[in-house]
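Homework help board

Subject: predicted structure for assignment chain

Our instructor gave us this sequence and asked us to write out the predicted structure in token form, then describe one feature. I got the tokens but I'm not sure how to describe them. Can anyone check?
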Amino acid sequence: MAAEAPVYQCMTKGTDRESGGPRFSASWVGARRGTFKVFADRIEVGDWRIPFEQIDRAVLHRATYLPFVKVGVLELDAAGRTYQFGFNPWAAPEEHLPFPVEEREGPMGYSQFSVAVRLVAAAALLYFLFDALT
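My token output:
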């Protein structure tokens, strides 16, 4: 018997440790990478299986990641759990979902962790540049 083929699939990075608008955070560092698969009755990413009937809310956040690069983060509330899936600009999973998906546009946010990492990286870069020039 042949395995069921997905209606749509694309690469994603997903976490169940975030909610709300998209943001840079430590949750995405350890996020699961895999294939986002839409089947006739469910979504699968690795061993996560999310039946459509368990999805209470779906929001597609559109945000600018780098200048002129729009990314999508699909947030699903299902069975008391919140999942977020990040997609490349060319991916369009929302076109293949049989339930309503609210779309929101906004900026990428930053957690305290991501701000601290950026500050440390900038300080290290300045130190190495100063050290190389002296």
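Reply (TA_rk): Your tokens look well-formed. For the description, you could write something like this. The chain has a mean pLDDT of 88. That's the kind of observation they're looking for.
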